[in-house]
TrEMBL record:
<dbReference type="GO" id="GO:0016987">
    <property type="term" value="F:sigma factor activity"/>
</dbReference>
<protein>
    <recommendedName>
        <fullName>RNA polymerase sigma factor</fullName>
    </recommendedName>
</protein>
<dbReference type="InterPro" id="IPR013324">
    <property type="entry name" value="RNA_pol_sigma_r3/r4-like"/>
</dbReference>
<dbReference type="InterPro" id="IPR039425">
    <property type="entry name" value="RNA_pol_sigma-70-like"/>
</dbReference>
<feature type="domain" description="RNA polymerase sigma-70 region 4">
    <location>
        <begin position="96"/>
        <end position="144"/>
    </location>
</feature>
<dbReference type="InterPro" id="IPR013325">
    <property type="entry name" value="RNA_pol_sigma_r2"/>
</dbReference>
<dbReference type="GO" id="GO:0003677">
    <property type="term" value="F:DNA binding"/>
</dbReference>
<dbReference type="InterPro" id="IPR007630">
    <property type="entry name" value="RNA_pol_sigma70_r4"/>
</dbReference>
<dbReference type="Pfam" id="PF04542">
    <property type="entry name" value="Sigma70_r2"/>
</dbReference>
<dbReference type="Pfam" id="PF04545">
    <property type="entry name" value="Sigma70_r4"/>
</dbReference>
<keyword id="KW-0238">DNA-binding</keyword>
<feature type="domain" description="RNA polymerase sigma-70 region 2">
    <location>
        <begin position="9"/>
        <end position="68"/>
    </location>
</feature>
<dbReference type="InterPro" id="IPR014284">
    <property type="entry name" value="RNA_pol_sigma-70_dom"/>
</dbReference>
<dbReference type="InterPro" id="IPR036388">
    <property type="entry name" value="WH-like_DNA-bd_sf"/>
</dbReference>
<comment type="similarity">
    <text>Belongs to the sigma-70 factor family. ECF subfamily.</text>
</comment>
<keyword id="KW-0731">Sigma factor</keyword>
<dbReference type="GO" id="GO:0006352">
    <property type="term" value="P:DNA-templated transcription initiation"/>
</dbReference>
Length: 152
């Protein structure tokens, strides 16, 4: 197995936390992700472990989202005190990212928050490395323009 669980644990946790905005649930889903990963050795083909980890995490987040009561869906930002120190630019960026189509949002989160390499993203999204890079540049350009519009 070439995936170092210690190296990937925080990244999977951040990915889950960003998608569901609940620290306790994100911790549970992260643990469940690694349990399922370790229980499925037939998916541990060379070069596919990281892809499989994110696939598990993504599916668990989607499942937990569908199981949430309706009133929880209105909560967009958790009540953690850490968020009191976020500067306006980060809030604006977060809002702009939320407005992206789901696949673009996921691509940006995986690339810049979880630092997933372009090669892994290309297999995860079924695109060439060049197409992934081009799409990321296009998304970043859109985010930059959206932030400029908000400043004006």
């Amino acid at each position: 197995m070439s995936v170092d669980i210690n190296d990937q644990y925080d990244k999977i946790f951040r990915y889950c936390y960003y998608k569901i905005h609940d620290r306790d649930l994100a911790e549970d889903l992260t643990q469940e992700t690694f349990l399922r990963f370790l229980e499925s050795p037939h998916y541990h083909d060379i070069g596919k472990e990281l892809h499989y980890l994110y696939t598990i995490a993504s599916n668990l987040c989607k499942d937990s989202f569908h199981r949430r009561p309706r009133e929880d869906l209105d909560e967009s930002i958790p009540d953690d005190k850490d968020y009191e120190d976020i500067i306006l630019t980060n809030v604006a960026l977060g809002n702009a990212i939320k407005e992206l189509p789901d696949e673009d949002k996921e691509l940006i989160i995986l690339r810049y928050i979880n630092e997933v390499p372009i090669g892994v993203l290309s297999s995860l999204f079924g695109m060439s490395r060049f197409a992934v890079s081009r799409r990321i540049r296009k998304i970043l350009s859109k985010l930059k323009n959206d932030l400029k519009k908000e400043e004006d």
